[in-house]
Specification:
This protein is an alpha+beta fold. 19% of the residues lie in helices and 35% in strands. Strands 1, 4, 6, 7, 8 and 11 form a 6-stranded mixed beta sheet that branches. The protein is globular.
């Protein structure tokens, strides 16, 4: 069922909506992480997005990463599961979302980076090069990657 969020918003308005997000920590051959600077808030994060009804976690992360980067993920492994206070987001239009995040790790992929409408920039960054304006909902797993916290992580 596509447009799940739109359908639910018609029923509940701006009230908190529980969603499942899947993202990927993608590392290149030099061990750098792929970061995406989004067009909607100019913050940095990792590629990913929300699960659609009927999808698996793997299907979701591979679809979202391809849509946002044009990369095809090969082997993926679980990096961590994230929830908690930082998972509650209020958008400028008043919509509220509590998103449980399933984060994968991938270092084997094919394709060439291509920016879509959601991205201002896609670039690989080393652990010591992370930008200061990380998306606060994604900062916990990006910082866990930076600090080389062992996986899988449940927070």
């Amino acid at each position: 069922m596509r447009d799940y969020i739109k359908t639910m918003r018609a029923m509940i308005g701006h009230e908190p909506l529980l969603t499942v997000g899947c993202g990927a920590i993608i590392e290149d051959a030099e061990g750098r992480i792929l970061l995406q600077r989004r067009t909607d808030n100019a913050m940095w994060g990792i590629p990913g997005g929300l699960m659609e009804i009927g999808e698996t976690f793997e299907e979701t992360v591979k679809r979202e990463v391809y849509e946002e980067t044009q990369l095809h993920l090969d082997t993926i492994t679980l990096f961590g599961l994230y929830s908690g206070e930082k998972s509650l987001v209020s958008y400028p239009n008043g919509d509220q979302v509590f998103s449980v995040q399933i984060i994968f790790h991938c270092s084997k992929y094919t394709g060439h980076l291509k920016i879509d409408y959601e991205s201002q920039e896609l670039t690989f960054k080393a652990r010591h090069e992370l930008p200061s304006n990380l998306n606060p909902t994604q900062a916990p797993f990006i910082l866990d990657w930076q600090q080389q916290v062992k996986q899988p992580i449940v927070k």
